[in-house]
Design goal:
Four copies of one chain form a homotetramer. With 380 residues, the first copy, chain A, is α/β, with parallel strands linked by helices. Chain A has ten helices and 17 strands. Chains C and D meet through strand 7, strand 8, strand 11, strand 12 and strand 13 of C and strand 7, strand 8, strand 11, strand 12 and strand 13 of D. Chains A, B, C, D: It holds the Pfam family GFO_IDH_MocA.
């Protein structure tokens, strides 16, 4: 048994459930240098928080996140709340010398994200680590994709094609939620889904987006408020944009919650001068790989990313035994615990989260100005 | 045997070969009211034209297209030349009272296309018919897609996702051709591939594109000229654009010759309020159909579009016996011959070709002005 | 224009239509040394035969196949009738010194097939050629598969998995046809579909089946006779069998007309010591290829078999432009005409057809004897 | 927190790791009436067992399984050892009044399985429950498949096509293991992989196999023993067989470890009179469903089995967020705990395991007698 690290998690909805699983399980599969102790769960409603703590295995409950941050038995704060509270919780935790894992998108505005990135950078000087939870970087197939690009197997990247398609808002009678309120969620499909594909595209290709042209749409303007009336939707239902990367690659991006029949189709295609890659999260254990070296019988290889020498896979099952969604979070906390122990900065950093935030802001800016090309400053 | 119609075809490269096959074969499979007679083939080089005529089954050869248009035994002129000569040949043929089938894109400029559409409209008054050869409308799967949208099975269209991916220019040493010269081809991937997906998207959804935001790229600026030097590429290698339809749908489009491993991936996805469609020309006998009526076991249906009640299929083989690329041209001329015989205007008309041309022009315009949103006027 | 060869075809149903297309078109695409002339079409009903001849482009009609065989302008007889007349027509044609193309299965019994193979062998001595029409050998993907096995790319073949799935009899109310009468068709799914996969498996792997264990089933015993009554089905609806090859490979085979939703799923999988292959006729332009040399990113390659250096493809369109079902017949007659001109025996020969027939007979024999292992004698 | 149940597990290799995860996690996701306490882990090597116990979260270690069975804090014994010890451990546990979960195949012989089934039946009278761990029944897609058949959605089942393909023995230099020794493993691919597809086919269709015709093969007779020599392989590398079900359906089965490129392709296809199903474990979150009611746009639906109303899925993540291999074990123990608490017999029972064992024995018997049809007695 390795040394323990006390974790305090704020928020216990969907993200809280899957993060809890990762904290409980990581040391059962990975040889992590720190063993997480599920010290305290934060939630405003004491009864519901207690239920969640019992269900998910947390030792204690705090109804005030400040109290959770202040606990002596908490050395790491995991922020699983909606985006409007990320900044204050994360900043307080860093200030208190606690390592931070923060859900994505990092913040609801560039200003907040800048403050967080600066604080994270300062904290790192003191050995306090922070990570933004772009868990899709930990899909073995996407980690393998990055490896292939980094090794030069794809050559110079020319095209990126990224979509994140869901359909849960397709029905106009689907009710209002906090995710459709700008003040809570920051944006709609853009921040929720677009953030993932922006980060994934940059992660896999190793390039940074330098400019965008965008438009957004809200197909259904009002939704049932649960009390017989209708509430205004104040975020985008869909966002589409063109992008250029510092590598010279061209990109197209689409994030939508209105692609009927697509449940979680986070898709990424990359075409380079030597090869191509294609990925779809609905088949997350597969990576399609094309190599121009393959000769007359070339074709996209359907690589089942379940071999022991594929990223993260060695910790799990034999070839052909698939992994699922929650494994990405287990990989994430494994990497975070290792980075903390080794005293290095984990990736994606808050600075990486800020870069994504700047792209999202540029998308909204372009969409508000007739799709005019909008550059993203200070990208490295 | 039905009444014959004399066909004269100008050009005998790739398009000439496949058009010849259609003219030779159409009455063997379809009960067309007119039987084509392959009267004359036009080509500037007498020797090569004669070889092609023998190979493809044309009775005579003309080295001057004007002579071909003037022949008494030619009632229909099929224009298979590069885009820079479409306008003059088609205009002359219409003026001579000959029906015209013209390869796409209709012309190399909006001005030419406008003149052609006006001439076609005037000719129609005199019973002379014209059609632009967007053959992908005659892929049974895409014709079925249009039928499903028209029947309301997809509901209101919200998203269109269209790409046309090829890879034959991916290698920088791939040599210069007329297709990479602006004065000959008009544009690059945009006019060659983009024209197809613009027409197909409008055809399938029944909507018209009203505005675009675009950018284009030439990845390889110079190519081997075959004489030891290098020639400047003056067209786009790739074009990407966002679009809005008059129906309110959002679209993303991409045309490229640099998508390594994609040989002819003309893909179209449509998401509506009741259902979705997905098509890939590399699997051209299939249409993926999602219906929100399908209940708890819903999923994209892989419809093998080879049933007798699917468009065009009844003329061919039993279910599961696939059709190929050239069948789309056979379907095209079957429809054209029927329209001529029935005295109605065939689709797609030159006016439809003009609409596509305007979209292409708007794409280039937007790309030249910082991707600024650019509207397409006079779309209906 | 090369020298002509007069073709006489007996039968003008489905197979007649597709063969006609091949004879009409082959020299338009392939540089064949003989140009087919569609001399005469044989059919018992003069009116229907004349209609078919006009439709398909045959110059004359004969209501007696003997007269057709005897015509001076016929040098090649194409037998497209049901299996019960293959033997007498083919034997008469060979005796008359006419080359023969005979539809599969070669005959309705081993005895007939033996007589035909002997006659073909004797005729070959006199320069008269014969071929049995296993057209699936001419699917480019399957021809490529054979090439890969022959080159050693798959290594020693260990497993063959072959199914041919259709569903047109799944409905018990589907009416009686000659294909369900033993005296006409010889057998049911076994001879119609099983013959194809037996030939294809032997063709691709280069091995011969040495023994089988089998069982067959007739799910629907009686079918509507079209006159209000019901007729007895006297053939198998489905046949399944295990097989061993002289190479040591193990095989499983299934032929059925009751696989609901499978329209023409002729599937072949081969696993060897160095690689694997998978094919499905419903995606006939694709071959899946796995190579153990591909290293950590190995996976089945989806090879789009539309490259100029793939078998037969150079005669057609650019990469990614698909071929269809009838192309296999065009390839077949191209090969036959070349063999005739070069004075060599074409493949598959009647001897190859006999080998398949012996396997089918062994399947029925085993099925009739408690699935007992049944060897196939004289296989090379 | 519900009442606890003490679990003792014997064996800590691959199966032990995945069972441990299930015991640790089940109550975090499912509202199970009993909460497992990981009381003791059994392993002969004290050091390795202790390491495993720490890694997997077991409170104690026993080096003698008899001591583990005898522990007061163990109410349920989980047997994860090779097949040669299943019988004695399970019988002892049942005799001691402990519930039993036993890995598959139930035993290495029919005689052992009969004794186990009899003991389980007797124990059930005393409220002691037993289950054999055919975990693939708990793949949501296969549970959904069974539901669809049971609801009549597929109609009468006519064809079953089941293969389980792996490739880890394809290389002749792959070393000897206990799985290749008859005295330890009972059989090779047959018992390891064939057992799964026999159970799954019976589970999904609701039919029982009544007879088989089979053959088996050992492609590589000797393998490296790790000490410079070679050891004899005494089990099958592959087994293929035909089967008939009491429902009248025909089946084909294949189990092999030599299908290069197939990592864990447990595939099941079912064709009925109203619909069809297809499943592949390498895409375990998908079920292909064909319904003859779907009309002219019918086709296999790719159902992503990740909806809340699909079996087991409600406990996990939103639609489109995939589950993996180990989830099947979590589902398994959830069902077992529920059955124990409710006082009902869980499925699959030892009697179900015995039925599978009888099929496996019949396969070996048939293979040893010239593939003669071999009936399976006493199937209900």
């Amino acid at each position: 048994m390795t040394e323990e690290i006390g974790v305090g998690m704020v928020g216990h909805a969907f993200m809280g459930a899957v993060h809890s699983h990762a904290w409980r399980s990581v040391h059962r599969f990975f040889d992590v240098p720190l063993t997480p102790r599920l010290a305290a769960l934060g939630g405003r409603d004491a009864v519901r928080a207690k239920e969640a703590a019992d269900k998910y295995g947390w030792a204690a409950v705090e109804t005030d996140w400040r109290a959770l941050v202040a606990r002596d038995d908490v050395q790491l704060v995991d922020v699983c709340t909606p985006g409007d509270t990320h900044a204050e919780i994360a900043l307080a935790a860093l200030a208190a010398g606690k390592h931070v894992l923060c859900e994505k998108p990092l913040a609801n505005s560039v200003a907040e994200a800048e403050e967080m990135a600066a604080a994270a950078s300062a904290a790192a000087e003191r050995g306090v680590r922070s990570m933004v939870a772009f868990n899709y970087r930990r899909v073995p197939a996407l980690a393998l994709a990055r490896r292939l690009v980094a090794e030069g197997r794809i050559g110079d990247v020319r095209h990126v094609r990224a979509v994140y398609l869901q359909d849960w808002l397709s029905d106009p009678e689907s009710p209002m939620t906090w995710r459709l309120r700008r003040e809570k969620a920051g944006s709609g499909a853009l921040g929720d889904l677009g953030a993932h594909i922006v980060d994934a595209a940059q992660f896999v290709t190793g390039g940074l987006i330098t400019g965008v042209s965008a438009t957004t749409e809200t197909f259904v303007k009002e939704r049932p408020d649960g009390a017989g009336g209708r509430d205004e939707v104040t975020v985008d239902d869909a966002a589409v944009f063109l992008a250029r990367f510092d590598s010279g690659a061209l990109g197209t991006f689409e994030a939508t919650r209105f692609a009927l029949g697509r449940k979680n189709a986070m898709r990424l295609e990359v075409n380079g001068s030597r090869g191509s890659l294609a990925f779809d999260f609905e088949s997350m254990n597969e990576l399609s790989v094309f190599s121009s070296d393959d000769g007359p019988e070339s074709g996209f290889r359907r690589v089942l990313v379940t071999e022991a020498d594929h990223p993260y896979v060695g910790a799990w099952w034999p070839p052909g035994h698939l992994l699922g969604y929650e494994h990405t979070f287990t990989h994430e906390v494994a990497d975070l615990l290792t980075a903390i122990s080794e005293g290095v900065d984990p990736a994606p950093s808050f600075a990486d989260g800020l870069r994504v935030q700047r792209v999202l802001a540029a998308v909204e800016d372009s969409a508000g100005h007739g799709s005019a090309w909008t550059t993203i400053g200070d990208t490295r």
